[in-house]
Specification:
This protein is of the alpha+beta class and about 200 residues long. It has a single domain, classed as Phosphatase 2c, domain 1, CATH 3.60.40.10. Strand 2 and strand 3 form a beta hairpin.
Length: about 200
């Protein structure tokens, strides 16, 4: 139901990236997340991996309760910033939410019905440290619509070059290559809705 591509950059001198992602099926559809551990290196990676594990094990829950559970679980870590989306292909709906500075953009496959591009409203905070008031946004989503998440190792102007027609893996590689700022770990996750439930 979803085709996706991911591209990562690890800051030179670090053993692993603090930026991680998740794309997993749940009872209602697909959960997609991009997570950036605060700072970089092993401690940042440990915080993001803990968030991925919790999201995967609880993927059927509504995303506000997922973020609250992550917040409780990550209190002993450096914390993370994250953006996540729960896609319900059967009902043609996507619910998304961002805490911190992981950018989210939805590109419409067919822009005839309004905005070709929707941007995720990000709320300042750190999951595991300072959680803002959480409010998820619900959007209609159609086959061919493409979701882009990028951590702060990617410059924000990447969104001017997006196309819903570009292959997800090629798009992720291109965005990382052209817009990586080089002073932090970076991750680009591109997910296209390819079908709907029967």
């Amino acid at each position: 139901m979803v085709e996706y591509g991911v591209a990562k950059f690890v800051l030179p001198g670090q053993g692993e990236s603090g930026d991680h992602h998740l794309v997993c099926c749940n009872r209602n559809g697909i959960l997609v997340a991009a997570i950036d551990g605060i700072g970089h290196g092993e401690e940042a990676a440990n915080a993001s991996k803990a968030a991925v594990a919790l999201l995967r094990s609880s993927a059927d829950e509504p995303i506000i309760s997922l973020v609250k559970r992550c917040h409780e679980k990550l209190r002993a870590t450096r914390g993370v910033v994250l953006s996540l989306a729960s896609i319900d292909p059967e009902h043609g709906m996507m619910t998304w939410l961002g805490v911190g500075n992981v950018q989210g953009v939805l590109m419409r496959g067919d822009a005839k019905n309004g905005n070709a591009q929707e941007s995720l409203l990000l709320r300042a905070g750190v999951v595991g440290s300072q959680l803002p008031a959480l409010q998820a946004t619900v959007l209609p989503i159609l086959r061919g619509d493409t979701l882009f998440f990028a951590t702060d190792g990617v410059r924000s102007d990447f969104s001017v070059t997006l196309s819903a027609r570009e292959n997800p893996q090629r798009a992720a590689d291109r965005i990382l290559e052209q817009y990586r700022n080089g002073n932090d770990d970076a991750l680009v996750l591109v997910s296209r809705l390819t079908g709907t439930s029967p």
